[in-house]
Design brief:
- By secondary structure, this protein is α/β, with parallel strands linked by helices.
- It contains nine helices and 17 strands.
- Helix 1 crosses helix 2, helix 4 packs parallel to helix 7 and helix 8 crosses helix 9.
- The two termini are 34 Å apart.
- 43% of the residues are buried.
């Protein structure tokens, strides 16, 4: 888990926005206090020390949660919070920045933060959102029309490569920390978000993928949350249901564990996408078939062979996360599996 709080001067703490205008140094001190106090409480009362702290959520763009603030404020807050964390004994906690509204805005802010030698020492991951609404990775229809049709958008690839390269330069991770308003039904959302995860892995080398909300109450005053919340629950009816994004994330998260390695995977069909992982003696592949018809996917591995214990499940028009047994092993150590049209399949096998 990662805790988040203490940097929202627009809604949660408007008094800090007023303080910024009159005493900037005290503003930074109070901001650091707001951020670190909950972490101290969790440590002292529950023995929990988080590895990460998600410091911002659209601080200067989108929500504008640092009301009246600038990108330089972000740099100064990183330094103030980081120094306070170290004084309080949090020697290993790293900050995640900056989760601006778009990939470009996040990249610009991250570059500014990491250009400061002091701020850079406190950061462990670069984070970004994929807005505004209606953009290619926000709206599922656009994902299916681009990457889902074998035509990934070159501009979206370029900014992800820039985020990836910036993170690699400083030995950091990349996180995609929010997307929503896909405006699609469950089945399209499941496949569209599975493609989105594939693309964040491939182009940004991302280590983390988040929806906007983990769970949403159907009776909430703000109305319903679409298929990009992971879980819907209805207190009146006593029901809980997984959404399209929840099923998409599950095709990855239910199959790989923390510490698994994302490995290079290629496909000779632009409409069939694959992500692959090594996880403690097993290979895991997530296959997205964007064709209308079923195809046979043959997984060929370099330097190792599949020896057995094959497990697989699929999501398609027939249902979600359905266990399947339509797999076969070749004498060359390859693995073949039938994948239905417009489907997502997870498969794992033991290696030698």
């Amino acid at each position: 888990f990662t805790l988040h709080g203490g940097t929202n001067t627009r809604w949660a703490d408007p008094w800090l926005a007023a303080l910024r205008r009159t005493d900037y140094q005290r503003y930074l001190t109070e901001m650091a206090e707001n951020v670190v106090a909950p972490l101290v409480y969790w440590r002292d009362h529950f023995g929990i020390v988080t590895r990460w702290h998600h410091l911002f959520n659209e601080p200067t763009t989108g929500n504008g949660e640092l009301q009246g603030g600038t990108s330089q404020d972000v740099v100064d807050i990183v330094k103030a919070v980081g120094a306070r964390l170290r004084r309080e004994g949090f020697a290993t906690t790293r900050l995640v920045v900056a989760s601006e509204e778009s990939e470009e805005a996040s990249l610009a802010t991250a570059r500014l933060v990491l250009a400061d030698p002091q701020a850079r020492t406190y950061v462990g991951a670069i984070s970004f959102h994929t807005y505004p609404y209606g953009s290619i990775y926000s709206e599922v229809r656009h994902i299916l029309e681009t990457s889902g049709a074998g035509r990934p958008d070159t501009g979206r690839i370029k900014v992800r490569a820039d985020l990836r390269d910036l993170a690699r330069r400083y030995g950091m991770q990349v996180w995609m920390t929010e997307v929503s308003n896909g405006r699609a039904g469950p089945l399209d959302s499941m496949r569209g978000r599975a493609i989105h995860i594939h693309d964040e892995l491939l182009y940004a080398d991302a280590s983390s993928y988040w929806g906007m909300f983990q769970a949403w109450d159907a009776n909430a005053e703000r109305g319903t949350c679409d298929e990009d919340c992971l879980v819907h629950f209805n207190r009146a009816r006593g029901t809980v249901s997984i959404t399209g994004m929840g099923y998409a994330i599950g095709h990855y998260a239910r199959w790989i564990r923390r510490g698994a390695l994302h490995i290079e995977a290629r496909t000779d069909d632009p409409l069939v996408l694959v992500s692959a992982f090594l996880d403690r003696g097993r290979v895991v592949a997530v296959i997205v078939n964007n064709r209308r018809d079923a195809v046979v996917a043959k997984l060929e591995l370099s330097g190792v062979q599949v020896v057995g214990d094959i497990k697989a499940e699929q999501s398609s028009a027939r249902g979600y996360w359905l266990p399947i047994e339509s797999t076969s092993l070749g004498q060359d150590g390859s693995l073949s599996i039938v994948v239905p049209g417009a489907s997502v399949t997870s498969v794992s096998a033991v290696l030698r």
